[in-house]
Write a structure and sequence with these properties.
By secondary structure, the protein is of the alpha/beta class. The chain has eight helices and nine strands. The protein binds S-adenosyl-L-homocysteine.
Length: 254
Amino acid sequence: MAGHDRASGILRAVLAVLLGAIVVGCSPRGGQAGSRSGPDWNVLRERMVRQQIETRGVKDPEVLTAMRSVPRHRFVPEDYREASYQDSPLPIGESQTISQPYIVALMSELLEVGPGDKVLEIGTGSGYQAAVLAAMRVEVYTVEIRQGLCERAEAILAELGYDNAHVRCGDGYGGWPEEAPFAGVIVTAAPDRIPEPLIDQLAVGARMVIPLGDFYQQLMVIKKTDDGVEERSVIPVRFVPMTGEIERQGEDTQ
Ligand code: SAH
């Protein structure tokens, strides 16, 4: 009798495991979006917007629509693609990173720009932030200092049809004077002080969104006024350093 009980107990356990496997198999990755043909990016993206961005208070409808439409996974290298819609920054090569989705949305909102406005971005990186602004129907001028990243970003932006994103390879310290003034300037690498030419190229009444500082940085909004600038600090952030001319100037004054 005892042997029979043990045998049927084992049988039940085996059946439970098998059933469990079938249930998990039906609901891909135990409830995660996906299938044998790969993750369902649209489902992951919608979840990203709801759980990471709307709940943290981003409200600008143009920003939310753009975050829902831009295929972030296309800007992330193959090795990290599955993590594209997670709540974190990711490596994009050359020790650089694509920002956390919430930070991209927040910075886009803080610019307070709309369709047809011209925005200058310093630090193209993967091209994702530029694509989000382009999806907001903004005319984007973006500068990247690293040739490899610059060419890759330019190619993917063109492939995805963001014709209103213009990429230039070089040091963004000097901005893009031919296209100034800008209705917004967004800097996605951190200098320890504001590059003067970028203030010059900002229209009066427009905002610059910029992470300022060395290790500990503050995300700042700098509004250009008739008689100077108004600054406010938003949240602590962590960006890669802005390199090139601004670093050389820092060394000179040390
Ligand atoms: N906005 C990017 C993330 C930027 S990471 C995205 O959406 O993926 C910061 C980028 O700034 C890096 O690619 C780095 O190479 C670039 N960068 C640093 N200093 C720069 C400078 N002086 N001019 C232009 N780009 C710079």
